[in-house]
Design goal:
Blueprint: E1 23-25, H1 36-41, E2 51-54, E3 59-62, H2 64-67, E4 70-72, E5 85-86, E6 92-96, E7 99-107, H3 116-122, E8 125-127, E9 135-138, H4 139-152, H5 156-167, H6 180-183
Parallel strand pairs: 4-7, 6-9
Antiparallel strand pairs: 1-2, 2-3, 5-7, 6-7, 8-9
Length: 193
């Protein structure tokens, strides 16, 4: 599970047959390694998957953002906008069922583009604030929290910290995220700055 296993002998990417394989996804089916370009290409529709890079001795977690993946809203996945507008400070956080993720996010800036809030909602991401959104939670995690809170009486605070542990169980990389995105549907009067 932690080592490279049979992949240690792979010298070319099994997807493109050209580059050196060094990345694996903890959330995709299978454990085979792929190259930098292939890991980005296969994750245009899965920007919250957790990627690991083989260093030669161990796997190190690396974000798709650091690898160069940009998520484009307002267009089909994988298609770029001619006039992309970066999220506020190019700093966007997505809370999903598998952890908290830093994402390079571009809104559509075309003449016919919808408001940023609407672009996020069309992606099934619930934004924490309507002004310069920097944090969103997937509808999937909101539904998971909704059911869990009824069944186990888990608070939003406890649930958030559980999800944060999925991202970093060491506590070394603390993330500053507004909890409103997890509990807003229960208390619509809350706001986050």
């Amino acid at each position: 599970h932690e080592g490279c296993g049979d992949c240690i002998h792979d010298t070319i990417c099994s997807n493109c047959q050209s580059s050196t394989p060094q990345f694996r996804c903890k959330d995709c089916f299978g454990t085979e390694l792929c190259c930098h370009d292939c890991v980005l290409m296969t994750h245009t529709k899965n920007p919250s998957h957790r990627i690991q890079e083989w260093t030669g001795s161990y796997f190190m977690t690396v974000s798709l953002k650091k690898l160069g993946l940009r998520v484009q809203l307002g267009h089909p996945a994988g298609k770029r906008c001619l006039f992309p507008e970066r999220a506020f400070n190019d700093d966007f956080t997505l809370i999903n069922t598998n952890g908290i993720h830093e994402i390079s996010l571009d809104f559509c800036g075309c003449e016919t583009a919808q408001m940023h809030t609407r672009q996020l909602l069309h992606t099934a991401w619930f934004l924490a604030t309507t002004n310069d959104p920097r944090t969103a939670a997937t509808f999937q995690i909101l539904e998971q929290y909704h059911i869990l809170s009824f069944e186990s009486k888990c608070s939003g605070h406890e649930f958030y910290h559980t999800v944060a542990q999925l991202s970093d169980n060491t506590g070394l990389h603390r993330r500053k995220v507004c909890l409103t995105s997890l509990i807003l549907f229960k208390h619509p009067s809350h706001s986050c700055r």
